[in-house]
Amino acid sequence: MKKSLIILVVFLGFGLAATAQSQKQKDKAMEQVKELNTQLTDIDKTLALSEEQMEKIMMLEIKKTKDMRAIKKNDGTNEDKKEKRKEYRNALKEVLTKKQNKALRAAKKKNKE
């Protein structure tokens, strides 16, 4: 009886830890999405992200984070990271409209200055 209770507690603990980490990733991804939306709306309020776009971009952010961690864990090269970032940018371009893409490029250029 004690053994089964201990095993149950251990599995429950692992489950809660995984859920907390998953929520942390979602929160971080949502911060990134909000930042992107702010960059777009600073240029033109009509370029705000839709709920559907926010959801897709959040999933892209989570995937990018997991991919980068996997590359780092597997001793990947900077070239591997560069390729993943390029894949992410291309996927982001697919989600955004032409006007939003143009505004994002303008915002990034403005931030560099």
Tell me the strand percentage band: under 5%
User: Overall pLDDT, averaged?
Assistant: 83
Instruction: Write down the domain tally.
Output: 1
Provide the gyration radius in Å: 19 Å
Quaternary form: single chain
Our measurement of the CA-to-CA distance between the termini, rounded to an integer number of angstroms, reads: 66 Å
Helix content: over 70%
Shape verdict: globular
The low-confidence runs, each spanning 5 or more residues with pLDDT under 50, are none
Total number of helices: 4
How would you characterize the largest beta sheet? none
Element order: H for helix, E for strand: HHHH
How many strand units?
A: 0
Structural class, by secondary structure, is mainly alpha
Description:
With 113 residues, the protein is mainly α. The protein has one domain. It has four helices and no strands. The protein has helices at 2-43, 51-73, 78-95, 98-112.
